[in-house]
Amino acid sequence: MGAPLSGPAPGPAFEFRVLGPLRVFKDGDELPMSANRELAILACLLLNANRVISVDRLVEAVWAGSAPRSAWRQVAICVSRLRRRLGAGVIETSSPGYLLRAPDDSIDWLRFTAMVARAREQAARDQQGAVTLLREALALWSGSPFEDLRGLRYDVARMAEWRLEALETCLELEIELGRHHQVIPELLALVAESPFRERVRAQLMLAQYRAGRRAEALRTYQETRRFLLEQIGLEPGPALRRLHEQILRDETALMRPPAQRPAPVVPSQLPPQVLPFVGRDGELAGLDAALRPGREAPGALVVTGPPGVGKTTLVLRWAHARIDWFPDGQLFADLAGIEGHAVLDRFLRALGERDLPADHAEKVALYRSRTARRRMLVVLDNAGDGDEVASLLPGGAGCRVVVTSADPLDDLVARQGAHRVFLAPLGEEAARELADMLVGAAGTALGPEAVTDLVATSCGNPLSLRLGAARLRTRVARV
């Protein structure tokens, strides 16, 4: 037996940490990073990983508005040094600047933002799961990022705001889960860290009140009021004043645990896949690239091509393979012979709505509200025009829409920013493979010429292949 074939050796594994002192690990070993200019450039590229960053932006990151005339040349020198340290293929030149290629999970900042986004979506149906995700995300922080890099001060402010909002959301969920005693020390520290954030002070007051420390809650309000008047000359905001009045009146609503939200309906309407399935690797990869979670969603993705070319088969193959990307449900409608408003009614009922408004515009608004915070897939098969598709586009950035149509739907591309995939017939090799699988044992009885003729007459159209193969099998069965 010959030696097994081996593929190309995998590239080095990188881990980039920016949620604290900037650290780079290559195959588990930390790389020395000391020069401030190189650190500023690397930090800027990491915060914008897999996107082109202009040289002007890198100059600003390094010199913060006081760049010398040689700044562009010095940036190029720093990038060259970074390339030698990191290895080939990590930083690419791409007009008008540079691009750092790295998997999202190799950068702690991107892992953090992805986990926070998932937690916010999950909070409506699973508060404890959302808290667990948020705590895992917050644990990635090990200090203050980029303390000595003035050119990244706005990035640092944005990152700090993300962290504070994530922590506030986590503490709010934990208070709702009845952990008011446990969160009080953390809230006291957070008030000291960010004294102007009234949301944190309200959380502290509520936690103190629920813990039976009413006097402390009232004192927290008085301290807040005094601080705001001394610092900026303003009274606390309406939400904080309302909470203070509720505590003064001992309103029972403050102690009542929040009503359990009903679990959202998760529709699963995808039809079964059409099997066997061959080829289309490039098209499936294209759907992955366009519809992957975490990226800006197109208005819709249109798969267009002649009748029978396999548009629906391709979309269902992809949808079933990527069903985990859409945990909040999958909606499907065959638009052939049915009006868009009837499909909208079906979708709303599938999402748990019973009392539907009579006005069509109100239905569209309700549909978009119900999908605004979900990660859902909507498949619209056999669309005739862009107008009926437009009213069925969901409202959430986490939703994805795939449309199949024999028409290229130019109006949907122009008005809604839809992407488009033109599906061609199968190549000869894939068509032959599909024909052999479809004809099966009947091919032996009929001879190889029958399958060859079937492939030739089908011209790579999968539906023609399937119909022809079915006729061949019927002919053999009747003999």
From TrEMBL:
It comes from the Bacteria. Residues 5-102 form the OmpR/PhoB-type domain. PROSITE patterns: OMPR_PHOB. Residues 5-102 bind DNA. InterPro entries: AAA+_ATPase, AAA_16, AfsR-DnrI-RedD_regulator, BTAD, OmpR/PhoB-type_DNA-bd, P-loop_NTPase, Sig_transdc_resp-reg_C-effctor, TPR-like_helical_dom_sf. It holds the Pfam family Trans_reg_C. Gene3D superfamilies: P-loop containing nucleotide triphosphate hydrolases, Tetratricopeptide repeat domain, Winged helix-like DNA-binding domain superfamily/Winged helix DNA-binding domain. Belongs to the AfsR/DnrI/RedD regulatory family. This is BTAD domain-containing putative transcriptional regulator. It comes from Nonomuraea harbinensis. The lineage of its organism: Bacteria, Bacillati, Actinomycetota, Actinomycetes, Streptosporangiales.
